[in-house]
Fold each of these.
Amino acid sequence: MRRVSRIAVAGVATASLAVVLSACGGSSTDASSGGSAKGKGIGLAYDIGGKGDQSFNDAAYAGFQKAETDLKIGGRDIEPQDGESDADKVQRLEQLAKSGYNPVIGVGFVYAPAIKEVAAKYPKTTFGIIDDEQDKAANVADLVFHEEQSSYLAGVAAAKATKKDHIGFIGGVDVPLIHKFQAGYVQGAKSVKPNIKIESQYLTQTAQEGGFASPDKGKDAAEGQIDAGADVLYAAAGLSGQGVIQSAASHKVWAIGVDSDQYKQDALAKYKDYILTSATKDVAGAVYNLAKSVQDGKPATGVVRASLATGGVGLADSNPAFKNNADLQAALKKAEAGIKDGSIKVKTS
């Protein structure tokens, strides 16, 4: 079992751990829609933080569930282990591929080395990796996003919402992917208020140190930024972002969620009045679409990148305080139009 502390995790998962795979974590679904181990189905291996993060992994799980239901295929989704190695990831993906699951999807850039190794061994299986485009193989789909674009909009929203002209950014791990979130956010905020003060912090240098899986680290970082004067906090930190949201709510300042619409997450319901919006990316759609392409006999391969123009990234408007703020919405509409027509070039670093 994972030892990561989670906020209100009881309301998250719809199925309990049912199968334990040697050195590979647990599987919560095993051909639940009638498929068999040798039949056609989808295999999903979660990123650090696992299912229940109310963010990145849960978005992938939503796509997994939709594929099982709509496409009437089997599936197996597997949790990571604390402190695991690339060899553990290789073994996990190999078990899925060997069992006949197709496609096999690694959730997160940490799977890049494992996908490269296993895809070469199983050329007839389609592999997908979310948030990485290093692997260039005929049977690999790189499912990536223009996170900087939605983050730019988040920066605009933060600059419009702050009462102190002082906001914050908290990244889970100091890596190029998360730099995209920070770059877009800072640029968007400064497009509204050039002299706005922005606190920035990364929780860890490597994923193995828990930057994406430690709500306590997120909470501590948020406390520091709020103490420094920030009254809007944007976290791109996976499960750790729950701690940021919790801290923001306790201090009655705004939090901006990430990846999923965190205002609508049941496990975060008691904090939702302080979740201004969320910078979303359609991870669920990426997972589902890859599974459908395989079922249709036309597997997607190469770089598949989602953007504002394709509807693959954006801002959630579930919070009425956000949706009904006319000035904020006008600024966002203008920014989105500029990004789409190319007049606004969003930075990635």
Amino acid sequence: MTATRTRTAAPDGRKTTYREAMREALREALRSDERVFLMGEDVGRYGGCFGVSLGLLEEFGPERIRDAPLSESAFVGAGIGAALAGMRPVVEIMTVNFSLLALDQILNNAATLLHMSGGQLPVPIVIRITTGAGRQLAAQHSHSLEGWYAHIPGLRVLAPATLADARYMLAPALADPDPVLIFEHGSLYNVSGGLPADAGPVDIDRAAVRRPGTDVSLITYGGSLPKALAAADDLASGGISAEVVDLRTLRPLDDATIGESVARTHRAVVVDEGWRTGSLAAEISARLMEQHFYDLDAPVERVCSAEVPVPYARRMEEAALPQVGGVVAAARRAVGEPAPSGADTAERPPVSGRPG
């Protein structure tokens, strides 16, 4: 098949949802390049488990919208083979917990073949994975394991948190010669709003400062970005100016943007829905200590999930996840101000994750 590319711009200010923005990105990719196809469980007739691919089967047919059997290892491996053969597959994995069934394909094949072949075998595959908790789907459907994948050389790991990034991250991901994993937080699919007039294209090498500030940097990504922005609003009402940094790309991390923010504010709070131990938050904290020790006026704070399987019961799930009150309390500790009376103090948990 020959490849042709065009770019279809969305109308300025058009109202959309995160889900619809992802669908529009897929539709544009399918229209502009005949090598692109979508494959995964229920992506065709059902329209995707989260409705992202709804209507694409009718528009593009079963050759390009392929329902796959219930075997992540098999269909991710098929996608890798298609990428090696010159196609541009987009593979959807229903939830991050089940991506572990394809970890052998992702780590031992997709991430390593270019290196092991001496540069002869690039694997230009995009793998979309739903991640995160907050929807009462219990432990097998709710974890945030993107930090595990950010540990692997040979992969690019993206986490779109805004409507614009949901709409415009796919095109540069497909243009990347290396495997790209896109982690979509399940709580974001229903988020709606206007697509900014200046949206797209997206630089997937750079983090984004979503809110400027001078007193403390709130560093986060994906489904935790709305919580960080809400925490910044709360802090502003108390006279604390919080800068909010959206990582966007988890591998490779944009050390420059993170460091520039901390050099301005001299304090940092990392908000990460992953578990604290061995987390992405731990990596960012270590880099800040290595690269910006003399810029810091306080220890780096981390707000992470409790080190337990994500509970099903709503109140227990909420208690296990980073929340706005915990981010506010961490930021107040960083700037040396006590939490207001009656506020959620969210003290640092012990490293072991055990109570006490």
